[in-house]
Amino acid sequence: MSENKPKEGINRFGQKTITMIPVEAPLNPNPGHKLRTSNVIVNRQALSSGETLIDSSRLDKVAGQKIEFYSEGNQVGVIRVADQEEGGPVPNQFTGPSYRNPRQRFRFDGHKMMHHLDRLLAWERGERFAPVHIDMGLTKFCNTACLYCYAVVQNMTRGTLIEREALLSYIEDCGRLGVRSIGFIGDGEPTLNPALYDATVRAGELGVDTSMATNGLLLDMDRAHDLLKNMSWIRFNLSAGTREGFRRVHQSKEENFDLLIEKIRALVQIKKQYGYKCTLGLQMVLIPECFDEVLPEARLGAELGVDYFVIKHCSDSEYKEIGINYEDYLTIGDVLKEAESYSTADYVVQAKWNKINAASESALYKNGIRKYDVCHGTPFLLQISGNGKVYPCGPFFNKERFYIGDLHEQSFFDMVMGDRYWAVHRDVTESVDVHKDCAIGCRQDYVNKFLWDLKNPPEHVNFI
Ligand code: SF4
């Protein structure tokens, strides 16, 4: 195999350069002008004369070329070996090791808007359209008291939940409207609403994808099959890998940690036994109080056999009521990387680096200034409170100016097709200053960045 080590130098401007030209590569005799390095250029014609280009998707099957697979951490790459037994030279054989990016199984750290171009076109045409996704609470209360709970700033109210009939007719309307997915996420604990299970089954019948984020403690195991059969994913909010950490971060009894682990283990077993597709995962909300729990939980996830363990930043409110100092995240990068190294083919460990690394942004951006000025995302990704009240987004729950309606009083179909719904979304785009009125890193953030770029194209867009 050709030697292809980085070669460092100082260029004629006194700047550091790094090149990777293999010593045995054929060089171009008439290389043209000097680059910032030199005018030593590989002769690509000599490498590829008379050859058709390699279909890179078939790199591991190219005739006459030897390859070796190698792995580093959880990633598998391909090394093309220069020595050939048959066939002629292949292009770029001196560029050294090639690589295959591992498939991204989940996209925790981004958005999937490009898969919903029909809604984008409707938006661009100024039409009324159904949200692609809705995050919704099913209750306004909880049975644990996590240190980082955002719902606390959204006014929790013991005993308040969406009534069964209202919930089920809302699900029917989502099917009618073409809502693509609903996450029972946010506000209170969803398993405290007994209608959760029937709502999930009905959504499945209507072709609306569902998911849930839960602390898992009260999950009704008698309905486990209904959930695993119909939900796309279930995520356990767990920010500790030990009993002691669980008590500290979730402010709950250590025995509850045992109970939760037992339930997750049973769900994994049922899922495997019956071949259900539902993804089971753990999510840690990263705060300094659980920094020491990252690795134990990464190991716990592997041992339980869940599909993933994701570590996310803690979203603080516009008033920073959770008191997060985002610079604290700069101290834990190595631990997060070690946790990610526990990933296997069946188990993904991933930190949401985009948000976790926000503290290393420039002084302007690290304290919450966004890379866009207008929020366009709420009609695509709506949020509903656990009391049935519809708002454009979670951070605006209880802000009556942005109140759209109540699922107990009006059909969701009429709401989405009505004037009030669109007047509120318009008010958000026209009057909200995302840099000061909004929670840090809200749910619509990735979508907003994408829509902002779409709305504000640079010059020369045809030069893609
Ligand atoms: S940017 Fe502001 S208005 Fe828009 S969803 Fe986020 S918090 Fe709500």
Automatic annotation (TrEMBL):
Residues 381-439 form the 4Fe4S-binding SPASM domain. It holds the Pfam family Radical_SAM. Residues 138-270 form the Radical SAM core domain. The lineage of its organism: Bacteria, Pseudomonadati, Pseudomonadota, Betaproteobacteria, Burkholderiales. Its cofactor is [4Fe-4S] cluster. It comes from Paraburkholderia steynii. Gene3D superfamilies: Aldolase class I (3.20.20.70). This is Radical SAM superfamily enzyme, MoaA/NifB/PqqE/SkfB family. InterPro entries: 4Fe4S-binding_SPASM_dom (IPR023885), Aldolase_TIM (IPR013785), Radical_SAM_PqqE_MftC-like (IPR050377), rSAM (IPR007197), rSAM_sf (IPR058240). PANTHER family: PQQA PEPTIDE CYCLASE, RADICAL SAM DOMAIN PROTEIN. Keywords: Iron, Iron-sulfur, Metal-binding, S-adenosyl-L-methionine.
